[in-house]
Amino acid sequence: MDRLENVPGRPCSVAAALDVVGDKWALLIVRELLFGNHRFTEIVRNTAAPRDRLAARLRDLVDAGVIEKRRYQESPERFEYHLTASGRALAPVLQSLLAWGDRFAVDEPPMTLQHHDHELRLRSVCAVCGERVHREDVHRVSRRAGWDEAGPVPVG
């Protein structure tokens, strides 16, 4: 499904992505699943989300294909939640939010990511040419008729 149909304004994949995971609880659910916490009780404990809100977001994320629900007990019926490929692909997004939060939102980072024996530090490298990506080398090309970088293109 092309979520751009549901998003007002500029046709943009950022807006479409935010339509799926653009609230606090959605990304905190993904964080917990990345940490290996798959049960509702673990997720509610670690996010402090209201139970009804958490249940609604879990349903939304299942419907969007970001997570899947797996039964782990028959009676009473109980489920765990696991990331799909789509959900696992959000890991770098959360790593970027973590880095931004460490730098601008907290006085002292409460957690660090370790890579082997050192703190993980990410940088952008183009997967096509292998060069390090610099902001000044990147430009946008609109693929939607009637839009350019500045916004809607005047007709006529």
UniProtKB/TrEMBL annotation:
The keyword DNA-binding is assigned to this record: yes
- Tree of life domain: Bacteria
What Pfam families does this protein's entry cite?
HxlR (PF01638)
User: Where does the HTH hxlR-type domain start and stop, copy by copy?
Assistant: 12-109
The protein's UniProt keywords, in alphabetical order, are: DNA-binding, Transcription, Transcription regulation
Record keywords: ATP-binding included?
Answer: no
Q: What is this protein called?
A: Winged helix-turn-helix transcriptional regulator
